[in-house]
Structure formats: structure tokens, C-alpha cells
Model the fold of this input.
Amino acid sequence: MGAPEISNCCGFTLKHGTIVIGALQSVFAFMCLILSAAYAVHPHELIEMSDPSVIPKLETLKAMLIMFAVASALQCVFSVMIVFGAAGNRPALFMPWLIFNPICLFVYEVGTLVAVIHHTSENNAPFIVGHIVASILFSILVSYLTLTVYSYRQYLKRLNF
Done:
């Protein structure tokens, strides 16, 4: 018994839904890559426009921004791969994205958990509730997108592509 599958994506066919997911995610990942790379060069700008109590040390912030830039670059490449994989009916091109997306979601959830735990000693109920609600909504969205791409991959595998 495998993972659940769906038959369409928000009114689109699985193929078109996968292409839309790949295109939108590649644009978003590219924007995140540019922003995180720019702020990695000048991290003091983030500190100046944010609350200093929630910003880590300058070296830590710079390392986090570099890691985020690398992850965004990988996400951009893998998203373009699912566009070409869906357009050309090549399910093997979906695998890097299907492996990387759940890993990124797990890292995001761990980061959210660390942020919530770090701020529980203070009276930051809106911060904590906001992080938890955003984390749940983001997890549901990423899980649905991953399920859509996985379902289309399984459909193509059944057709022997």
C-alpha cells in the first residue's frame, strides 16, 4: 500500500498542476535566492530594519542567509526540472524535487519549533501563535503540492514513461 494519490490539482489536470507548481515555485525560489544572497553580503541591513531581540548574531545570520541562498538555488533548479519533467512526461526528473521538498519542510518545522521554544520564556504569545499557525498552513500547502507532483509521477509510471 503506497502513499495516497489525487486525480487533479485545484481544477487543473495533474500535468498542468505540476507545471504550474514548478513554474511558481521556481520564480519564488529565484526571488528568495536573490534576496538572501543580497542580505548575506549586507546582513546589517536586516538588523537595522528588524527587532534586534529576534535577530541572531551577525555571523550566525550571515551563515543562515548563505544556507538559505544555497537551498533556494537548489529549489529553483529542482522546480525547473519538474516543469521539464511534466512537459516531457519524464517522471525521473521529479525525484530530486520529491526528495528535497520534504527535507526543506522538515528543516522549516524544526526551525519553527526552535523559534517557539526560544521565545516561550518571554511574553510573546502573538509571536508564538503566529509562528504555529503559519507553520501549520505552510505544512499543509507543501504537503498538498508534494502530493500533486507525486501523484503525477505515479500516473506516468503506470503509463510506463
Observations:
- The mean pLDDT is 88.
- The first helix runs from residue 14 to 41.
- The two ends are 21 Å apart (CA to CA).
- The chain has five helices and no strands.
